[in-house]
Design goal:
This protein has 7 helices and 7 strands, in the order βαββαβαβαβαααβ. The chain has 250 residues and is of the alpha/beta class. The protein binds NADP nicotinamide-adenine-dinucleotide phosphate. InterPro entries: NAD(P)-bd_dom_sf, Sc_DH/Rdtase_CS, SDR_fam.
Length: 250
C-alpha cells in the first residue's frame, strides 16, 4: 500500500513542489493550504484540504480529517507578516506565530499521540536561517521561526523511545519562481548575467551566507527524502541547507 504523506502549505511555492514530487514517487499525499482548490496546481495524486491553520478549530480537526496518522508529515506552511514590523497589529502577530510555530507543534503532538506504537512516522519541520539574522523588518518572522525551532527540539525530546523522528530542515533563500523572475528582469534591464545578479543579491541580502546561488526546490525535496529515509536516527536532526558557514559560531 502507498505510504501517506501530509504536506502543509501545499497550495503554493515549496510545499506545492514537495507534494507533487512525493505524489510522483508514489506517495498518497494530502496537502493543505488556505486558498480554494481551484487556485492550487491541482496535482494528480494530491488530495487537498482547504483550511486556515491560524484557527484553533482547524488544528483540532486535522487528526480526524487525516484518518490514520501519516507516515510522513512535512510542516511547511508559513505566514509572512502582512506589513512592516512597526505597523503589524497584535492580531497579525498572533496569526504569524500560530501558523509558523504553534499549529505545527500542536498538530505534531496530536498526530503522534494518535498513532499506534508499531507505526513509524517521520516529521519534518521546515525552518529558515532567518531565525539567526533578525533585524527590525524581519524580527517577527525570525522570532516565529526561532519559536518553531525550540518547539521542534522539545518534540524530538518527547519522541525519544517512541517510533517517530522529528527533524528540522533549515533552509536558506529559495529559488522560488517569483524571486527568480525578478532577478531575471533586473539582469535583463542592466544587461548583466543573471548568475552575477543573483550573487550580488545574495551578498547584499544575506551577508552571513556563503552560497552564491539560490537553493532550488529539488535540493529541498532530496533532503526531505534523505531525512525520511533515516528513520528514527533523524530524531532531533537539523539538516541545514542554508548556505550558513559551518565554521561560524551561533
Ligand atoms: N522562500 C524562501 O526563500 C525561504 C527561505 C527559507 C525558508 N523558507 C521556508 O520554506 C517554507 C515554504 O516557504 P515558501 O516561501 O515556499 O512559502 P509560500 O510560497 O509563501 O507558501 C506558503 C504556503 O503556506 C500556506 N499558508 C499560509 N498561511 C496559511 C494559513 N493560515 N493556513 C494554511 N496555510 C497557510 C500558503 O497557503 P495559501 O497561499 O493558499 O494561503 C502556502 O501554501 C516555509 O516554511 C519558509 O519559512 C522559505
Amino acid at each position: 500500500m502507498a505510504q501517506h504523506a501530509f504536506v502543509t502549505g501545499s497550495s503554493h511555492g515549496l510545499g506545492a513542489y514537495l507534494a507533487a514530487r512525493l505524489a510522483g514517487e508514489g506517495w498518497k499525499v494530502t496537502g493543505l493550504g488556505r486558498r480554494p482548490e481551484s487556485e492550487t496546481p491541482g496535482t494528480p495524486g494530491v488530495d487537498y484540504i482547504q483550511a486556515d491553520l491560524s484557527r484553533s478549530e482547524t488544528v483540532e480537526r486535522i487528526p480526524a480529517l487525516l484518518g490514520e496518522t501519516p507516515d510522513l508529515i512535512v510542516h511547511n506552511a508559513v505566514s509572512y507578516p502582512p506589513r512592516g514590523a512597526q505597523e503589524v497589529s497584535l492580531t497579525e502577530l498572533d496569526d504569524v506565530f500560530r501558523v509558523n510555530a504553534l499549529a505545527p507543534y500542536r498538530m505534531t503532538l496530536d498526530l503522534l499521540a494518535a498513532k499506534p506504537d508499531a507505526k513509524f512516522t517521520s516529521v519534518i519541520v521546515v525552518n529558515s536561517e532567518s531565525m539567526y539574522h533578525a533585524d527590525r523588518d524581519s524580527g517577527v518572522y525570525a522570532a516565529s521561526k526561532a519559536a518553531l525551532r525550540v518547539l521542534t527540539a522539545s518534540l524530538a525530546e518527547a519522541s525519544r523511545s517512541r517510533n517517530a523522528g522529528v527533524a528540522t530542515l533549515l533552509l536558506g533563500p529559495l529559488a522560488d519562481p517569483d524571486k527568480v523572475e525578478q532577478l531575471r528582469r533586473v539582469a535583463d534591464s542592466r544587461g548583466v548575467d543573471q548568475a552575477e545578479i543573483t550573487r550580488i543579491f545574495l551578498r547584499k541580502s544575506n551577508p552571513d551566507l556563503v552560497i552564491e546561488e539560490l537553493i532550488d526546490f529539488e535540493a529541498c525535496y532530496r533532503s526531505v527524502q534523505y531525512i525520511a529515509g533515516l528513520g528514527r536516527t533523524a530524531n532531533g536532526m537539523v539538516c541545514r541547507l542554508d548556505g550558513g558557514s559551518a565554521g561560524s559560531l551561533i
